[in-house]
Amino acid sequence: MKGILILLGAALFLTGCATHQSPTGRGQTLLFSSQEMSQLGDSSFAQIKQQEKISQDKAVNAYVNCVADRVTQALPDQSLPWEVVVFESDQVNAFALPGGHIGVYTGLLDVAISADQLATVIGHEVAHVLANHSNEQVSRAQMTGAGMQLADLALGVGGIADKELYMAALGLGVQVGYILPYGRDQESEADVIGVELMAKAGFDPAQSVELWKNMSKAGGEQGPELLSTHPSHGERIAQLQQMQAKAQPLYQANKLSVKNSCQRPK
């Protein structure tokens, strides 16, 4: 009986959770506070830095940091410092985590062949954080009970019961061996927010189309790791082309005010 009451309490707790709206007006159920998500992002990023080889190439680090800094400086909230780390790996991949963390793999630079194209990927990944997609994913993992203790959450005594599952929910599936993919709505939302973000940072949003064309050619039929949970290449490119009417004026209005020109290393 006690177990039934605990599970009932957990169900009532989840049902009563506040429903939020994403930046595009989509309804979201978020079980975790921004502080909890930041702690999870901090912990996960620290673990990735221990597991992956960090690039010591000064030119590459300066270039990636330049692009990432311009993208994050276009965010509405400037109170959070962003940590950017370049990982030495052939993976065509990048990610952003709550708490202000961005990871870029050197293999991505072979496909994102310009600062504008790199800004497309970084903008997209930062957009996932900005739109609370990580919170959505971790909340979904919690609600489905995939390795979690639902009753612990209801009683307020639960910790990180399964770090790998949480990390996968944060978009780190390639690193931890399995993936909890973002949904189509989340991916489309990140495209919209990311393209607008890069345009406000003074990067040419037209290059987002070229970037995903490059992505579609990389890694054979399935594409690189970054695309393993994403919509089809053709669908994404068509959507990005439709976004240009809104994004281009943002780019034209901001490109002349950009102070830092990010030079790709030779």
From TrEMBL:
Cofactor comment: Binds 1 zinc ion per subunit.
Signal peptide: 1-20
CDD domains xrefs: M48C_Oma1_like
Residues of the Peptidase M48 domain: 61-243
Keyword Acyltransferase among record annotations: no
PROSITE patterns recorded: PROKAR_LIPOPROTEIN
Keyword DNA-binding: no
Keyword terms of this UniProt record: Hydrolase, Metal-binding, Metalloprotease, Protease, Signal, Zinc
Cofactors named for this entry: Zn(2+)
Family, similarity comment: Belongs to the peptidase M48 family.
Name the UniProt record assigns to this protein: M48 family metallopeptidase
Naturally occurring in which organism (per UniProt): Shewanella schlegeliana
